[in-house]
Write a structure and sequence with these properties.
The structure is a single chain. By secondary structure, this protein is mainly α. It has one domain. The chain has 14 helices and no strands. It has helices spanning 7-19, 21-27, 32-53, 55-62, 66-89, 95-102, 105-116, 123-146, 157-181, 187-209, 218-242, 248-254, 257-269, 276-297. Helix 1 (7-19) runs antiparallel to helix 11, helix 7 packs antiparallel against helix 12 and helix 8 (123-146) packs antiparallel against helix 14. The radius of gyration is 18 Å and the shape is globular. This is EamA family transporter. It comes from Halobaculum saliterrae.
């Protein structure tokens, strides 16, 4: 099936899936670290039986070299910090601002891909990224600059926005490491190792903060499972699959569609109504995504 799905179609599915993440996180009342932990744990639970049922994937675990294992561990730690910081940012700022800022990762990805992976980024790709980032800036600060009525701001937008930027930097590290590893490792063994490292990192952080691991209601467990099945399996796992077929800069800028999807869902499901300036910024983000996707095919 992997060979029959066009990479850009896979990316479109992933963008829709990850767009639901912020809504599911907001609906949950559990601590941020607990939400992040169980999202990853349930993702592993969904993927591991499939992985073990495939002889080629089972054999791949024993073929992972020391260097690749170390890189996969680093990728898992980066993913854990991304989840922890971003989930927490949603407590302090609006969905539109948090999800937009966490997708500032192309700034880090393009620089890292050029410096570490020797990827060439053409002028059209750079232009698409620039347009998308302009849209992100409009969504984030346009209301304040123009004196327009802002979107729901949250109790501490500055702190929440800073956490979202940290999440963006860690997401970029995760994407870059994944781009390198996915050239050598099959999809499912790679993500199982990365997600397992991510889960162990989040577990250590959860225990260190003294958050309980049990005692949550049925609704919370359903939300944890939904985070795993939607954004986890159809979102991040499909993104990892795409990294073997598409340049990391294209993957990252495609994910800039997430703020638009999440903002729309927040309007419908959370009654968070952003201003016209924020909506215009979302349109500019989409223009950047389209420009970059077309540049990749030209």
């Amino acid at each position: 099936m992997e060979e029959r799905v066009p990479p850009l179609v896979g990316l479109a599915v992933a963008v829709v899936a990850v767009s639901t993440s912020a809504i599911l996180v907001e609906w949950s009342g559990a601590p941020s670290l607990v939400k992040a932990l169980y999202r990853v744990v349930f993702t592993i639970a969904l993927l591991l039986p499939i992985t073990l049922a495939r002889p080629r994937d089972r054999a791949a675990f024993g073929k992972i070299g020391t260097r690749d294992l170390l890189l996969a561990v680093l990728s898992g730690v980066a993913l854990a910090v991304h989840f922890a910081s971003w989930f927490e940012s949603l407590r302090w700022t609006s969905v539109a601002a948090s999800v937009t800022l966490v997708q500032a990762q192309p700034l880090f990805v393009v620089a890292g891909a050029w410096a570490l992976l020797d990827e060439r980024v053409g002028p059209k790709t750079v232009a698409g990224i620039a347009v998308a980032l302009v849209g992100m800036a409009v969504m984030s600060v346009g209301d304040a600059l123009l004196g327009a009525a802002p979107a729901v701001a949250g109790p501490d937008p500055v702190y929440g926005n800073a956490l979202a930027v940290l999440g963006a930097a860690m997401a970029a590290a995760y994407v870059l490491l994944g781009r390198s590893l996915r050239q050598r490792l099959p999809l499912l063994p790679y993500v199982v190792v990365v997600y397992a490292t991510c889960a162990l990192t989040l577990l250590a952080a959860t225990l260190a903060r003294g958050h309980p691991l049990l005692g949550y209601g049925t609704e919370e467990w359903v939300l944890f499972l939904a985070m795993a099945a939607g954004p986890g399996v159809f979102g991040h796992t499909v993104i990892n699959w795409a990294l073997a077929h598409v340049e990391s800069s294209v993957v990252s800028v495609s994910l800039l569609g997430e703020p638009v999807g999440s903002t729309i869902l927040a309007m419908v499901l959370l009654a968070e109504f952003p201003s016209l300036v924020t909506l215009v910024g979302g349109g500019v983000v989409l223009a950047g995504v389209i420009t970059t996707a077309r540049a990749r095919e030209s």
